[in-house]
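User: Can you predict the 3D structure for this chain?
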Amino acid sequence: MNTVAVIDYGMGNLHSASKALEHVASPNTRVVVTSDPSVIQKADHVVLPGVGAIRDCMAEIRHKGVDEVVREVIQSGRPLLGICVGMQVMLDHSEENGGVDCLGLLPGKVKFFGRNLKDEKGEKLKVPHMGWSPVKQHRQHPLWQGIEDNSRFYFVHSYHAHMEDDSMAVGQCHYHVDFDVALAKDNIFAVQFHPEKSADNGLKLLQNFLEWNP
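Assistant: Here is the predicted structure, written as structure tokens:
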């Protein structure tokens, strides 16, 4: 029996993520929502979700020792998927909440979209960036298998990622600026959008993740 651990540190959309994973999981795969380090360390695949303010997320991650557990998962070589703020916390620093240091697992920064944004036609753009947007597959990756380039995924965010190492950016989106929405390094894959809310394309990505053996 394979196990997928969805890390519960009090700041994730756990129900939607776990139900979507259960929907695409094979019969011999068990999805568990847990804060127990021993369960997470034994899981075959690990998901780090996240919603809300990054200062609160980082406080809970450090308070509950999730930072150390995530590092152990990465060192073990087991697949790790970060979703939304669960992606942002993997970077070095975020501008949100006056500036917050993150886990520093991937070299990059999280920046605010800004105010009074306008598109190329001069139309006002709302922040947060919310709704369906196409994702350009900047580089090939096993998690893109069966997903067409420029497929649309569902976003809800006011802050966006910019990687220092362009080779780690495997998916990009445009909303006033180009920004990185899918990141990959070794056994890490992380996305800004919500695959659990992205219909067939999101479910396919989750299925690819469960079948991924980096």
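DSSP finds six helices and 15 strands in the chain. The domain at 2-211 is CATH 3.40.50.880 (Rossmann fold).
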